[in-house]
Amino acid sequence: MEINYTQFNLNIKKIVSKHKVFFFHGENTFYMFETINKFINDSYNIETLYPWETDMNEVVKKLATNDLFTVYNCLILRYFNIAKKNFRKQLKEFLQSYKVENYFFILYEQQLTERERTEEVIKYLIDEHIAVEFTNLTKTEIINEFIPLKTKLVLSEEAKELLCEKTNNDLWLLTNELEKLNYYANGKTEITEDDVLNCCGEYEVSEVSQLTDGIISNNLGENLRILQELIDVKKTSEVYILNTIYWFFRRRMFKKISEQKMSKILQELQKTDYKLKTSPFKKYILETFIVRITQILND
């Protein structure tokens, strides 16, 4: 059965009480994870697997094993859109022969084409399990619904428009910018276009351009020197540097490198974003990130 995420969220408790396997597809990964988090709590053992790092034996093991201190395992299989045909076929055979008792989310992180919908495995997942489509929000929906939902700040219409423009309507990056504005606001009654420019503007100094160029050209030694100068001398925020790199890859590199490499880089970006916000060792975390994505890009 296939439904839109809005319908799914309205009936989420009823649906998850009767079903355990979910096929989430579409480009709106922000809402995918937000939806999962709505009913997955700390009493669940949550694990994430990637098709290029696992096999069906590992998937079966995770779904069939219950921890003594948790109610359910929750297994999230990401980037199913780049899984190989043999892996997809094995997954279908497993689901046809095994009753899944733990929660299992299969994420197809791009829009399904009509041709893809007719593929044997995809058709099976849509017809036999709960399939939820996560479409990208329109600019109007972001301005009228998403931004007011994510912040209590009062933003002028011009400020909202500029935020959408600077983040290219990317919900992950937009959320980061709203978090920065929350700290920046400091009692302001309204956030203006100038506030967005001052707080959320793209970092334009030459060192950041050199940093992204060095990642592409595999100049790791020079990259770490530039990063040290940005943090120690220019006192540039690590989160700000990460957001600039994130923006660079999402807007300029997305179609220039393979899907598998892009998936791995986005994975590292999301993990690093979380670590930077929860750890005091920000410089070390960002250095490790630079090393890791340089390796991924140039392998």
Q: Can you walk me through this structure?
A:
This protein is an alpha/beta fold. It has three domains: about 130 residues, P-loop containing nucleotide triphosphate hydrolases (Rossmann fold); about 60 residues, Helicase, Ruva Protein, domain 3 (Orthogonal Bundle), CATH 1.10.8; about 90 residues, Zinc Finger, Delta Prime, domain 3 (Up-down Bundle), CATH 1.20.272. About 60% of the residues lie in helices and about 10% in strands. Helix 9 runs parallel beside helix 11 and helix 12 runs antiparallel to helix 13.
Key terms for this structure?
alpha/beta; Rossmann fold; Zinc Finger, Delta Prime, domain 3; 3 domains; six-stranded parallel β-sheet; globular
Proper CATH architecture of the largest domain: 3-Layer(aba) Sandwich
Number of strands: 6
Mean pLDDT: 84
The SS-based structural class is: alpha/beta
Number of helices: 16
Q: Give the neighbour order of strands across the main sheet.
A: 1-6-2-5-4-3
Order of helices and strands: EHHEHEHEHEHHEHHHHHHHHH
| Structural domains: how many | 3
Strand fraction band? 5-15%
Which bin fits the share of residues in helices? Answer: 55-70%
Cα-atom radius of gyration: 21 Å
CATH topology of the largest domain: Rossmann fold
Which CATH first-tier class of the largest domain would you pick? Answer: Alpha Beta
Which regions contain 5 or more consecutive residues with pLDDT less than 50? none
CATH superfamily of the largest domain: P-loop containing nucleotide triphosphate hydrolases
- Biggest pleated sheet: 6 strands, parallel
End-to-end Cα distance: 40 Å
Shape: globular
